[in-house]
Amino acid sequence: MSPSSRPKNDTFLRALLREPVEYTPVWLMRQAGRYLPEYNETRRRAGSFLQLCKNPQLACEVTLQPLSRFELDAAILFSDILTVPDAMGLGLYFADGEGPKFERPLREEWAIRDLTAPDPNVHLRYVMDAVAEIRRALGGSVPLIGFSGSPWTLACYMVEGGSGAATDYRTVKTMLYDRPDLLHHILDVTATAVTDYLNAQIESGAQAVMIFDSWGGSLSHAAYREFSLGYMQRIMSGLKRSHDGERVPCIVFTKGGGQWLEAIADIGCDAVGLDWTTDLGEARKRVGGRVALQGNIDPMALFASPEKVAAEARRVLDSYGGDAEDNRKSGGHVFNLGHGISQFTPPENVKVLVDTVHSHSRRGSAQV
Question: Which helix (H) or strand (E) holds 46?
Answer without folding.
Answer: helix 37-46
